[in-house]
Amino acid sequence: MKKRMKGAVADRAAHHGDHVEINGPWPLDTPFRIGDLEIPNRVIQAPLAGIANAPFRVQAQRHGAGLSVSEMVASMGVHHGNARTVDMLRLDPQEALTGIQLFGADPAAMAEAARVAEANGASLIDINMGCPVPKICKTGAGAALLADPVHGASLVAACVDAVKVPVTVKIRRGLTPGESQPVEVAKRLVDAGAAAVTIHPRAAAEEYRGSADHRITAELVAALDVPVIASGDINTPRRAYEVFTDTGAAAVMIGRAGLGDPWIYGAMASGHSSARPDLEGVIDEVIAFVHLNIALMGERRGVHYLRKFYPWYFVGENVAQSQIAKLLVTEEVDGVLAQLSDIAHASALATASGLN
Fold first, then answer.
1. pLDDT at 79 over 80
2. CB neighbour class for 298 (10 Å; exposed up to 12, middle 13-18, buried from 19)
3. HSE (CB half, 13 Å, CA atoms) of 136?
């Protein structure tokens, strides 16, 4: 995540408020369908591992994401009844449309996990066939399935047979640039019943280096008769518009651009400048996010989980690194909330002083 965030920091600093003027209605602010599921706009919050829990999804939807997708959930963990894994399938009552992303290599376990996710209210089931992390790939899951699309198709078919909600797949262009056959892989998955395909057009070996080649996205759009969702390097409303119109994709999926900047979903969905507030408003958002996560995880686990978010929220804000560093070592939620209030109070004083 640190590698990904470096790019997000640069993008946010360089393109804050970036938007595009067009003639006619903004095309991302229209509904589309995945199978029988209607999604109110064409901006989707990505299934970020270790990030996209229920509070993150609630926040993304509140700020304008038409659909959220969970962090990836281990199907074998569900099969073995691991309590924490099963908890990841539970949706918050405030969630509107949420997909649950599963990973695994065993069709029966994937089907079982899909049924549990559907019973918990999942709007769709997404299968991860793009994660490049070695500990995932060595089990035959994630991006490893790109080398065995027949087996990947069997996972899709098992999930399609198990649930009534749509089943989708997220892929990369291939394991390496030289071994890429994304159109052929995607066609097999669609033939097995996939109702949509999300493409991140980097190879697994590239991880997040270089640039996402959305010419590959356009190739999938031309080849498939189901919605294709574009993912990768979509970080401003302008870029969302360009990728959407250049490729013909049905929607765009937003990952690192939303880290610490949930207002970006609404900006992309509307085409307007980001509604990101002043520092006091940002801190109000952080405090609300803290409360949601503590309610979900408990104090000890929640406080530790939240530490990754503070630097992301304060990118470009007038907050001293020493204040952020203090948040990163605080062990009690009351201390976190007190420090956030102190930062907001200092900002208010500075603003008032500047007006005199």
1. yes
2. exposed
3. 21
Angle at 152 between CA 130 and CA 36, to 5 degrees: 85
Contact 207, 235 (CB under 8 A): no
Q: Which of 39-43, 123-127, 133-137, 153-157 has the lowest mean pLDDT?
A: 133-137
Residues 72/131, Cβ–Cβ less than 8 Å: yes
Residue 52's Cα: distance from chain center in Å?
A: 6
> What is the set of active-site residues?
131
Q: How far apart are CA 26 and CA 215, in angstroms?
A: 22
* C-alpha distance from residue 278 to each of 66, 134, 287, 296, 312 (Å): 25, 40, 14, 28, 15
Is the overall model pTM greater than 0.70, yes or no? yes
Mark out the alpha helices in 120-181 (DSSP H runs): 134-137, 149-162
Going by C-alpha positions, the residue among 32, 35, 31, 43 that lies closest to residue 165 is: 35
Residue 278: φ, ψ to 5°: -70, 180
DSSP 3-state helix, strand, coil percentages of the chain (rounded to 5)? 50, 15, 35
Report how far residue 275's alpha carbon sits from residue 16's, in angstroms, rounded to the nearest whole number: 10
Angle at CA of residue 330, ends 327 and 335, nearest 5°: 90
In sign, the C-alpha dihedral spanning 194, 198, 202, 208 is: negative
